[in-house]
UniProtKB/TrEMBL annotation:
<dbReference type="GO" id="GO:0022857">
    <property type="term" value="F:transmembrane transporter activity"/>
</dbReference>
<dbReference type="InterPro" id="IPR011701">
    <property type="entry name" value="MFS"/>
</dbReference>
<dbReference type="InterPro" id="IPR036259">
    <property type="entry name" value="MFS_trans_sf"/>
</dbReference>
<feature type="transmembrane region" description="Helical">
    <location>
        <begin position="146"/>
        <end position="166"/>
    </location>
</feature>
<keyword id="KW-0813">Transport</keyword>
<feature type="transmembrane region" description="Helical">
    <location>
        <begin position="82"/>
        <end position="100"/>
    </location>
</feature>
<feature type="transmembrane region" description="Helical">
    <location>
        <begin position="267"/>
        <end position="286"/>
    </location>
</feature>
<feature type="transmembrane region" description="Helical">
    <location>
        <begin position="320"/>
        <end position="338"/>
    </location>
</feature>
<feature type="transmembrane region" description="Helical">
    <location>
        <begin position="231"/>
        <end position="255"/>
    </location>
</feature>
<feature type="transmembrane region" description="Helical">
    <location>
        <begin position="48"/>
        <end position="70"/>
    </location>
</feature>
<feature type="transmembrane region" description="Helical">
    <location>
        <begin position="388"/>
        <end position="406"/>
    </location>
</feature>
<feature type="transmembrane region" description="Helical">
    <location>
        <begin position="298"/>
        <end position="314"/>
    </location>
</feature>
<dbReference type="InterPro" id="IPR050171">
    <property type="entry name" value="MFS_Transporters"/>
</dbReference>
<feature type="transmembrane region" description="Helical">
    <location>
        <begin position="106"/>
        <end position="125"/>
    </location>
</feature>
<dbReference type="GO" id="GO:0005886">
    <property type="term" value="C:plasma membrane"/>
</dbReference>
<feature type="transmembrane region" description="Helical">
    <location>
        <begin position="172"/>
        <end position="193"/>
    </location>
</feature>
<keyword id="KW-0812">Transmembrane</keyword>
Length: 423
């Protein structure tokens, strides 16, 4: 059992949440700029949509591996260790991209994708761990809404900032990203020092146990199978939601250049997509949905998929932009609701918390494997508009099936879970 499970902190206030957002904003800003720039840089160098999809998918293959490794080897980590380690590893990403651009090496771009997959999982576990360790269950939806809003705000800025930085030089671009990452690391370091000082007063009032059960690998696989079968509706909704987001981050910048006929204005599609998500998350922050979260996320996902389907039939650019904007507002609700459901499950099932978090991250990683690969293959044979529509049809039909087959509330077999952990 993880140490942070046994040492539950007072969740009576948000005294740490606002502080946590400072380093999160800085590292997400760097990540969003890289996420926008990386597909464009790679596509310009390799000139192949399929190779772009493969390179993008590598990060998520690594991410899936991390999702299996973290519960086994990082069980004692709190959000602080996850955050620090994630930021440190992230610094290698822009450096490798810089080397790859000058050496024209696909292997360097692959390495950059590997680094991306590693550090992003650490950051994602930091977010989930922070909410479960520090926040009240009733605040999960609102807190996730705020985190998504910050992420989308950085994503909104990233196309403009990336275009400016890349227009200077690749060296200027890389140095600027590293500077932002170092700032994030320093902010996080001083935040942790401050929190530890506050904790000194409570040290003698709390008992922290470091007991941990050594779980064999096959036993862990059995636990993943049991949990996965029970939370499959939440897993699949998260997978489809992340697939749509990955689709836009993979081909959105390239499609923007094609739609506008200009490299300088290629950021417009991703800018509008992220603007819509930012507006939508404002609804979740001020009017959080705390009941029927699973069914609500499924409904909003179906609406999002439906709005993508007509894009291939439109000849008018304004209509395409309008439907993408409406779709982004709709899909903005899905992520916070689904992640809140994962956090709720983790909170209610303490012994399997790290495994539920791992499945949540595995869902995202798998989506970033499948979506870029599928988008890259389809883009070789059909237009980008058709790629969006095909994704919309597939996800709508699958989500409709899930909606009618899934229960209103998921209950995990805690007795069986405890037996597996104890075995």
């Amino acid at each position: 059992m993880r140490s942070q499970i046994l040492f539950r902190k007072d969740k009576s206030s948000h005294r740490h949440f606002v502080k946590f957002l400072y380093p999160l904003f800085a590292i997400l800003l760097a990540d969003s700029i890289l996420a926008y720039s990386f597909p464009i840089i790679v596509n310009n160098e390799v000139q192949s949509s399929i190779m772009l999809g493969i390179i993008m998918a590598v990060s998520s293959v690594i991410g899936i591996g991390m999702d299996l490794i973290i519960p086994k080897f990082f069980q004692k980590f709190t959000w602080k260790e996850f955050m620090i380690l994630g930021i440190i590893v992230s610094i290698g990403y822009p450096i490798v991209i810089h080397i790859g651009t000058y050496s024209l090496s696909i292997l360097m771009f692959m390495l950059g994708s590997v680094i991306w997959g590693i550090y992003f999982e650490f950051l994602a576990f930091a977010e989930q761990s922070f909410l479960v360790e520090e926040e009240k269950r009733a605040d999960y939806t609102k807190d996730w809404g705020i985190i998504y809003a910050i992420w989308q705000f950085t994503a909104l800025l990233s196309p403009i900032l990336a275009a400016f930085l890349l227009a200077q030089s690749i060296l200027y671009f890389s140095v600027s990203i590293v500077a932002i990452q170092i700032c994030a690391l320093l902010i996080c370091y001083f935040l942790i020092l401050r929190i530890r000082q506050e904790a000194i007063e409570e040290r003698n009032k709390k008992i922290r146990s470091h007991a941990r059960t050594a779980i064999k690998f096959l036993t862990e696989i059995s636990l993943f199978e049991l949990l996965g079968s029970k939370i499959l509706p939440v897993f699949l909704v998260g997978f489809f939601n992340t697939s749509l987001i990955a689709l836009f981050w993979t081909i959105g910048g390239i499609y923007g250049e094609e739609l506008t006929g200009s490299t300088e204005n290629g950021w417009i599609i991703l800018f509008l997509f992220n603007l819509g998500i930012l507006l939508g998350t404002a609804f979740i922050i001020y009017r959080p949905i705390n009941n029927n979260k699973m069914k609500s996320s499924q409904l909003f996902l179906m609406i999002s998929a439906l709005l993508l389907i007509p894009i291939s039939f439109f000849q008018n650019k304004e209509l395409i932009v309008l439907f993408i904007g409406l779709m982004s507002i709709s899909i903005s609700v899905v992520g916070p609701l689904n992640d809140s459901e994962f956090s709720d499950l983790a909170e209610r099932n303490h012994d399997s918390e790290i495994y539920i978090m791992s499945l949540s991250r595995m869902m995202n990683s798998l989506a970033y494997v499948v979506a870029p690969l599928l988008a890259g293959i389809l883009a070789e044979y059909v237009s980008y508009e058709n790629v969006f529509s095909l994704f919309g049809v597939l996800i709508f039909l699958m989500t409709l099936f899930i909606y009618f087959r899934s229960p209103n509330k998921i209950r995990l077999p805690e007795k069986r879970i405890n037996e597996i952990i104890a075995s």
